[in-house]
């Protein structure tokens, strides 16, 4: 079995789960960790470390935070770690000088069944598009985004009610299994790759932005329901709210869908003392939790304890 000296590259919590699995397996040496530079965050603009940096510091791992992945000083430092394998999990696009450096190559863990959902937000888009299954794929990085030769993939079913946060956590567990199995294959020199086949119907995991997170109430009840759960808890779906002279944007986190015929105008809000529904094409979206400007996320029944909407209240 080949001894693996690994540089791990990643930033968010998803990557931490994978890094922790490698460390705890204790079969291979993590000689370095690369993560994003520190950034100010929140209202106070306090400097925030990435989740991977927090983990690396807690576990006394060698840490690098380059601003420029082509910087000569960084490349010299990376080379000095003498790694023979790089692993990338939710980081950023690498220049060839980095991914081609180690003897055994650089592999990436991607949270989709490639070639579908290449891109920045595969977990979200799988739910938004109403998929019934997804998974994870490991592949060797090449000079394009998520197109390299696949090593292995693992599949799981998506339930009709789970949100992106819940699917994220299950995929992280599956991702740990996939990465450890990939490491075994590489260490035992038993890797057999599969070239990705492109086709016209491949779906893309576009970067999420304010525009594609806005709820389009001209869509049907299931499409709206899938969008909301696919963006919950982060970055969250949003829409405009209007009641009389009040008009502002709100975030909607948790909902149920009700497929039923009705005569309400699309976007109308119907409330009781404990429930809030939005009339949409083909039924209602029952809002279970939401957030008004300047307020914390709250359960709808808590909001309705102190707020009353008029019959003309609507979202759009």
How does this structure look, described?
With 316 residues, this protein is α/β, with parallel strands linked by helices. The chain folds into two domains: 5-187, 3-Layer(aba) Sandwich (Rossmann fold); 221-315, Methionyl-tRNA Fmet Formyltransferase, Chain A, domain 2, CATH 3.10.25. Helix content is 26%, strand content 29%. The protein has helices at residues 13-25, 51-58, 72-80, 96-99, 122-128, 164-187, 221-230, 300-306; strands spanning 5-10, 29-34, 39-41, 46-48, 63-64, 85-89, 106-110, 118-119, 133-140, 150-157, 204-205, 237-243, 246-259, 269-271, 276-280, 283-291, 298-299, 314-315. Helix 1 packs parallel to helix 6 (164-187) and helix 5 (122-128) runs antiparallel to helix 7.
Blueprint (SSEs and pairs):
Layout (H helix, E strand, L loop, with lengths): L4 E6 L2 H13 L3 E6 L4 E3 L4 E3 L2 H8 L4 E2 L7 H9 L4 E5 L6 H4 L6 E5 L7 E2 L2 H7 L4 E8 L9 E8 L6 H24 L16 E2 L15 H10 L6 E7 L2 E14 L9 E3 L4 E5 L2 E9 L6 E2 H7 L7 E2 L1
Parallel strand pairs: 1-2, 1-6, 2-5, 6-7, 8-11
Antiparallel strand pairs: 3-4, 7-9, 9-10, 12-13, 12-18, 13-16, 14-15, 15-16, 16-17
């Amino acid at each position: 079995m080949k001894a693996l000296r690994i540089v791990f590259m990643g930033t968010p919590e998803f990557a931490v789960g994978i890094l922790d699995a490698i460390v705890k397996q204790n079969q291979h040496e993590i000689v370095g960790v690369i993560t994003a530079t520190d950034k100010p965050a929140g209202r106070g603009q306090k400097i925030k470390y990435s989740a991977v940096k927090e983990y690396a510091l807690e576990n006394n791992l060698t840490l690098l935070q380059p601003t420029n992945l082509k910087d000569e000083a960084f490349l010299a430092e990376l080379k000095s770690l003498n790694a023979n394998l790089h692993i990338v999990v939710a980081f950023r696009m690498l220049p060839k000088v980095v991914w081609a450096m180690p003897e055994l190559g650089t592999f990436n863990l991607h949270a989709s069944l490639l070639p579908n959902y290449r891109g920045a937000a595969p977990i979200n888009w799988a739910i938004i598009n109403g998929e019934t299954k997804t998974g994870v794929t490991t592949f060797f990085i090449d000079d394009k985004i998520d197109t390299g030769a696949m090593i292995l993939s693992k599949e799981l079913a998506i339930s009709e009610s789970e949100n992106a946060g819940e699917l994220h956590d299950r995929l992280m567990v599956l991702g740990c299994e996939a990465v450890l199995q990939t490491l075994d294959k590489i260490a035992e020199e038993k890797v057999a790759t599969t070239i990705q086949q492109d086709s016209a119907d491949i779906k893309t995991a576009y970067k999420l932005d304010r525009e594609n997170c806005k709820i389009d109430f001209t869509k049907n009840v299931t499409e709206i329901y899938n969008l909301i759960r696919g963006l919950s808890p982060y970055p969250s779906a949003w829409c405009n709210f209007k009641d009389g002279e009040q008009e502002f944007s709100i975030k909607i986190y948790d909902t149920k869908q009700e497929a039923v015929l009705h005569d309400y105008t699309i976007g109308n809000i119907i409330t009781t003392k404990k429930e809030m529904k939005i009339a949409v094409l083909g039924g209602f979206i029952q809002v279970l939790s939401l957030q008004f400007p300047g307020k914390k996320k709250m359960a709808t029944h808590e909001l309705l304890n102190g707020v009353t909407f008029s019959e003309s209240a609507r979202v759009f």
